[in-house]
Amino acid sequence: MDKLRIVFMGTPEFAVGILDTIVKNLYDIVGVVTAADKPAGRGQKMKYSAVKEYALEHKLTLLQPTNLKDESFLQELKSLNANLQIVVAFRMLPEVVWKMPKLGTFNLHASLLPNYRGAAPINWAIINGDQKTGVTTFFIDDKIDTGAIILSSETEIGAKENAGQLHDRLMYLGSEVVIETLELIEKGNLITTTQKDNPKIKTAYKLNKENCKIDWTKSAGEIYNLIRGLNSYPSAWSFFKDKDQEWNVKIHEVKVVLENHNHNLGSLICTKKEMKIAVKNGFIQVLSLQFPGKKKMNVAELLNGMTFSEDGKVH
User: Fold this and answer.
1) How far apart (Å, rounded) are the C-alpha atoms in residues 115 and 120?
2) Which CATH superfamily is domain 5-187 in?
3) Which residues, given as ranges, of the chain have pLDDT below 70?
4) How many other CB atoms sit within 10 Å of the CB of residue 235?
5) Which of 89, 116, 127, 210 has a CA positioned 20 to 30 A from the CA of residue 3?
6) Which residues contact 145 (CB under 8 A, 6 or more apart)?
7) Are 238 and 213 in contact (CB under 8 A)?
8) Phi and psi of 198, rounded to 5°?
9) Nearest 5°: phi and psi at 124?
10) What is the predicted pLDDT for the residue at 6?
């Protein structure tokens, strides 16, 4: 078997954890492909992807194509003479790219495929109240997350675990599975499994403003799972209304209080130190949140400088 010459493709922090493990295991990374720089924040300063920061720091050859079919990018990629490509949290590749290396292109996905194909697998596993998830390596084909599975590894989801915590654990688990996958490829010991579709497969839809908005008519458990499934990014949100004022508020941490009550759904019940929202089978007690233009704060801090009337509600 020829020595592995790897091109790594990825963008966010999750991909950095995997790339770092590959580098520390002394594999030959001949190139890194990441997203083009984007203006971000109020000053619209150019922001580098997390993977670009890592590549620059470790003096790795870096490509940042805006178009993956661009002829000059394809020539540059070919000139790296890689025999394997690894993709982690990047974007859909054209066939001309994923078919380029002799040993193929494999992807690490943060779910147990075929469940949660798509953009936000970590979030949706928690939002849907799943008790387990995992990571999968598979060879890329012409659809999204449907290729032949190489390896997968499972882990429990904690009852109080949020998406940020699960993200970090899956990054470490993913690093181990990628190294095991590389060892199998090096030894020529690969046995892949074809993914089988079935009607019960769950999807990891792209997160947007609509599916991150809290529906206060749902049960306390469903609301709790949505909030922790979107914490720490991109955050669940709701409108808070009191008298003639209304705010778009991000809700970060909550706990469930199960008890009977006579309040209308969505009623805001506040003391000097505590905020509860009435739901079907009890209350959602808010622990931390973020009002527009303000930093994230705990509820006691907020209520120290802000009061709500008995008419306060969320919707």
Assistant:
1) 11
2) Formyl transferase, N-terminal domain (3.40.50.170)
3) 1
4) 18
5) 89
6) 107, 109, 113, 114, 117, 118, 138
7) yes
8) -150, 160
9) -70, -30
10) 98
